[in-house]
Design brief:
By secondary structure, the chain is α/β, with parallel strands linked by helices. 25% of the residues lie in helices and 22% in strands. The strands form 2 sheets. Strands 1, 2, 3, 4, 5, 6 and 13 form a 7-stranded mixed sheet that branches. It has a 6-stranded parallel sheet with strand order 7-12-11-8-9-10. The structure holds NADP nicotinamide-adenine-dinucleotide phosphate (NAP).
Length: 281
């Protein structure tokens, strides 16, 4: 097994996923081989994630998902779903499946998994890259209040708004469950589980959402506060733009800490460079 990015005759890239970037990286690696790529959604078919790269090199790509979404959109290549059992379990999986490169492309708020990845990389000696999308920065016209955590956001929230579009994810709704006077709109792929705030409307929908979608939603529900994690991604987020246009304040939850000493890329192109696919195609 090669310990260097780009080295060795066979590669197996394990992408810790659950994000758009993770899916795009799997897609890019799939199309980086013969150009034929791998059939989308070909989960777990033996060898389905194998991409021929030139005559000498085979690249296998596996994306790992936590299993939070009931019917996830599967990326090209192989997929595996569910936790590994902590850093030691992840390190064991890496060894058993001859993983040569580990990419932590989890969401910036998937705090535990990024630390697990760092520990597992140290245990197994496999190189690790963190693919982290840049955070958002306020633009002229934005009225942002920043919170350090969901609990902090819940404490600040009642003074800022009464009809709240809460976009911090269905898994963290318990942090707002004690707010009985506030009306919340939540949008998620799967329904949230209790405990949730008592005055809650849930919109089941899967993104991405356009600026027009967001404008319409804010107006229709007479939203007076947007709450979001600093998830980042595209430089202009439709929901942030729509809030700015409507003069709606935004409560932004700052990102949690990340493990030290892990090399980072802020784009799929940067991750491909780390994997040395930049000049090949
Ligand atoms: P987390 O708190 O960092 O992780 C909790 C546990 O879930 C981990 O210890 C691990 O279990 C398992 N896990 C997390 N990501 C995994 C992955 N990609 N593959 C296999 N197991 C994984 O994570 P989270 O905040 O619950 O997020 C779960 C997933 O949802 C992540 O994949 C993330 O990218 C995605 N996501 C999260 C957010 C968010 O706001 N947190 C938003 C959008 C998408 P073991 O220790 O047993 O391995």
């Amino acid at each position: 097994m090669s310990a260097e990015p780009g080295g060795g005759p066979e590669r197996h890239v394990l992408i810790l996923g659950g994000t758009t970037e993770a899916r795009r990286l799997a897609e890019a690696l799939a199309s980086a081989g013969t150009g034929a790529g791998v059939a989308a959604g070909a989960a777990a078919a033996p060898g389905a994630g194998a991409v021929q790269r030139g005559a000498a090199q085979t690249v296998r790509v596996t994306t790992s998902l936590a299993g939070r979404v009931a019917a996830p959109v599967l990326p090209p290549g192989e997929t595996r779903i569910g936790g590994f059992g902590g850093p030691a379990g992840l390190a064991a999986w890496i060894s058993a499946h001859r993983v040569t490169h580990l990419v932590d492309a989890t969401h910036p708020f998937a705090e535990r998994m990024s630390f697990n990845a760092s520990e597992a990389a140290a245990l197994s000696g496999v190189p690790l890259l963190a693919l982290r999308r840049p955070g958002w920065t306020p633009a002229p016209g934005d009225a942002w209040t920043c919170a350090d955590s969901l609990a902090d956001a819940a404490a600040l929230l009642p003074a800022l708004g009464a009809r709240v579009f809460l976009t911090t994810g269905r898994m963290g709704l318990h942090s707002f469950a004690h707010l009985t006077d506030t009306w919340f709109l939540v949008r998620s792929v799967d329904p949230p589980a209790a405990p949730v705030p008592p005055r809650l409307e849930v919109l089941l929908a899967r993104g991405p959402f356009t600026l027009d979608d967001e404008r319409e939603l804010l107006a229709r529900h007479r939203i007076d506060l947007l709450v979001t994690k600093d998830s980042g991604g595209s430089a202009t987020s439709p929901k942030l733009t729509a809030a700015r246009e409507a003069g709606i304040p935004v409560l932004v939850v700052r990102r949690p800490p990340v493990p030290e000493g892990v090399p980072e890329a802020d784009s799929v192109a940067g991750a491909l460079r780390w994997l040395r696919y930049d000049r090949a195609h």
